[in-house]
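Can anyone check this?
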Amino acid sequence: MTAVLRRVNRVLLALAGLVLVVLGGSVLAAAAGLDVPSWWPWSGPSDVLLTTADRQRWRDEGWWWPVVIAVLGVLVLLALWWLIAQFRRARLAEVVVDTGDGEEAVLHGRALEDVLEADAAAQDGVAQARVSLTGRRAAPRARVRFQLEPHASPADALTTLSGRALAHARTATGLSSLPTEARLRAVKHRARRVT
């Protein structure tokens, strides 16, 4: 259901953006002196968005323009936040576990992430491991970020990850596969002095 809501959210965002682009483009077209429909409120370069009467209507009220500017600023910030939120990957809240008797159990996603992190960080040469689960409840995907010590072998870290941590997670959850993306980074350290 959340995938459907995400699609609807993105469609509504695209439609809102399209409406704003069309309105802004038509105002710019009228300002540039291009042909616009006769029913359009601004038909030429001499027209203004706010007439003198509209601008002076609230002139004696000192609070009016600061409030308008503040509200527009908040709306822009909310629109930017909403846009950025569309591209963030949500973490998986729970994973469905097949119990073998035809029923299903639910495992908290954070609990599985914690176990994977502990298994991955227990390896020799791994300074820190961060795991996040994405995807669907029945088909999770893992993203693992390693920070490796200077003496660590990236190949050994990946082999141990797939052979131990991911194998334990697949066995415990009954998943046939757990697609994983691993990113490795070395811990910053000072060069050793050789004497």
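Reply from J.R.: I decoded it. The chain has a mean pLDDT of 81.
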